[in-house]
Amino acid sequence: MTRTNIVFIMSDDHAAHAISAYGSRVNTTPHLDRIADEGMRMDATYCTNAICSPSRATILTGTYSHINGVSSIWTEMDYRVPTFVEALRDSGYATALFGKWHLGEHGRSLPRGFDEWTIFPGQGDYVDPEMIDATGASTVPGYATDIVTDQAIDWLDNRDQDKPFCMMVHHKAPHRPWVPDEKHRHLYADGAIPEPATFFDDHGTRSKAVRGVHMTIADDLGAEDLKSDVPAHLRGPENREARMRWKYQIYMRDYLQCIQSIDDNVGRLLDHLDDTGLAENTLVVYTSDQGFFLGDHGWFDKRLMFDQSLQMPMLIRWPAHIAPGSRCEEIITNADFAPTFLDACGLDAAEVLPAAQGRSFLPLLRGEQVDDWPDAVYYRYWEHDDPIHNAPAHYGIRTADHKLIHYYGAGLGVPGASERIFEPEWELYDLRDDPAELNNVADDPAHAEIRRELEAKLAEYQRHYADAPYTGPGTPQPQWGPHDADMLARVEKYVAGIRATS
Hints:
Layout: E1 5-11, H1 30-38, E2 40-42, E3 45-46, H2 52-61, H3 65-68, H4 84-90, E4 94-100, E5 116-120, E6 130-133, E7 136-139, H5 144-158, E8 165-170, H6 208-211, H7 217-220, H8 223-226, H9 240-275, E9 282-288, H10 307-310, E10 314-317, E11 326-328, E12 332-333, H11 337-344, H12 349-352, H13 362-365, E13 376-381, E14 394-399, E15 402-407, E16 425-430, H14 448-464, H15 485-501
Parallel strand pairs: 1-8, 1-9, 2-11, 3-12, 4-5, 4-8
Antiparallel strand pairs: 2-10, 5-6, 6-7, 9-10, 13-14, 14-15, 15-16
Helix pairs in contact: 1-9, 5-9
């Protein structure tokens, strides 16, 4: 029996609404659209913690941040929590990783479970980047997105041809500071990139904590990102709107030019799979570690639970099993990725990845109806009041129709989080009447019943994922291992067995 191959392509900070397959108003991505046209577009894929390192750890392990130990960009993944890549390698797969890792570059935090890997240290550089492999560090000439694709194609051609494979292609782009390839610098240069409908959101109904984030284009997008100082005639509070518009055009031009390189290189990789006869039985995924604000609500960056940040693009092509032009509207989380990949490769996630909290959505890829599929996503952001963005710690629940968010106002000792205590606040959005999330109705008597229902669902999901809600000073800090003793015992037994035979 021929086993399924996996090519997992992930960018950094690529919002779904900057992909034309998702209806982008700002750019065109023909090669990414090709994956959707020849496969499936996932319309409700969400991250469980909208920041780089935590999302990557969740994808690898199928677990939430409080299980895998990566609650912020300042923490490294607990090496005892197994990954789906390790399970595939143990079952006979050839495995490789090229590009951004962002889970540590020393000792036990280095990539594991890969036959070959080459990674950027930290965020990495766009031009002539330093890269690290098992032998050490070296400078690689060229543009980062091209380099990672070259490494991936070279590995495909030189791998053990008798083994199925899992290859992870992790692009740095379009992470800030948004340095485009020279060949794309002519794109979007006329200053006419459309502004989002919520560009001048006044945040009038939002919580105090959210109104205080340092993520505004007008005031927080700096010269390092813009590669230019703000002209004198745009400075001062009286010129805020004009300054905001000027910054937006530069920001989006550079951001979209970086994405154009991703699109080109995804096309190269797809063509190579087609030309070498690998396409039919290879599951190709394109995603990003989370979304990004593209001027939505006047912001850039991510972290908050608004949809532009929360949603991950996810396009999947698998000709042997997915009908072309398919769409999936069921709620998926990045904790579901690992069990799904294992399922697609013929492995039982419950056996080889006992700590996983996600669920395989393989039946959904095949177009099947799953009656008991979850109707909500649980989200938690831990890096409270960090020194750069000042985003508040919060958790919440999103269903198809509503979103409830609790800003509990404490850092709980998480690295990178401050110890300042904020007043606890709530936000509730009725996504049916207010899809742009402009009107917080948490204290509206007309929504009191739905708030009670969502609070109950939030508590239910926290129990399910063994994540302790904030109850004031003294609340347990996030640590490795679920609170469920039976699950913890199974994980420890599994890890001990792997270590004994390695």
